[in-house]
Specification:
With 241 residues, this protein is of the alpha+beta class. Helices cover 17% and strands 37% of the residues.
């Protein structure tokens, strides 16, 4: 009979764990329901000089061990993975963007101040948001938040950054579909991009109701500004990614 797990307590130079995060009912959100559970993976990591644990990017920050470095990774703007590194920089938080490999590192900054909407609006990459590094991005852009609960950064100047998409804002309106429809008709907007953050309204519903028609294009961002439902109208600007 073959012996099993004979060397399970042998010391290793490094450990890599990629827990299964899907079950019979789909995606698993509870880290302790991973296979193996996150607590088991962390225990294995602590017994080696170096370790890397792949986890879901939606992991709560309070579930990240203090001695781990946490890195959130996006590819083409979509957040794909998070990695817990052991034996590197305890407590560090990073957002890495693929395919460039550009990385934003946390510095423990306080939340940015809320300020009026400026000429430009920046939509942070999802990895920046997941890593809680919007403050670091706002400092880089000399900007602030449009609302204390919304991850949009606004600024008066356009700056190059790989960590966000930039929009030049032309109009700021209280949420009102009739006014939006009239404005788009006046400007002959037929190509309409609708984005949302902090709004319950679905973009498809907006396009269906305003019936865009014409040769021009525009972007509508449904959001909240100082806790008020707001429509920001603009267009993509150079300077973002």
């Amino acid at each position: 009979m073959r012996r099993r797990h004979r060397d399970r307590h042998r010391p290793y130079d490094a450990v890599f764990v990629d827990p299964a995060r899907r079950g019979g009912r789909g995606r698993i959100f509870d880290p302790e329901a991973y296979s193996p559970p996150l607590s088991w993976a962390v225990g294995a990591a602590r017994r080696a000089p170096h370790a890397a644990l792949k986890i879901a990017p939606g992991i709560p920050h309070e579930a990240v061990p203090e001695e781990a470095e946490a890195e959130w990774i996006s590819d083409g703007g979509d957040v794909k993975e998070a990695i817990l590194w052991f034996g590197t920089e305890p407590g560090a938080r990073r957002a890495t963007l693929l395919p460039s490999g550009t990385t934003l590192t946390g510095r423990g900054l306080p939340d940015p101040a809320v300020r009026p909407v400026g000429r430009y609006l920046y939509e942070p990459d999802g990895a920046v948001i997941r890593a809680h590094l919007v403050a670091e991005l706002a400092e880089e852009l000399d900007g602030g938040l449009i609302d204390e609960t919304i991850a949009y950064v606004t600024a008066d100047e356009l700056r190059e950054t790989p960590y966000a998409s930039a929009y030049e804002i032309t109009d700021q309106l209280p949420f009102n579909l009739k006014k939006l429809k009239a404005l788009l008709r006046e400007r002959e907007v037929g190509v309409l991009t609708v984005k949302k953050r902090g709004s319950a309204v679905e973009p498809e519903e907006i396009r269906r109701r305003v019936k865009p028609k014409g040769p021009n294009s525009a972007t509508v961002l449904l959001t909240r500004v100082a806790d008020a439902p707001t429509m920001l109208i603009g267009r993509p600007a150079g300077g973002g990614r």
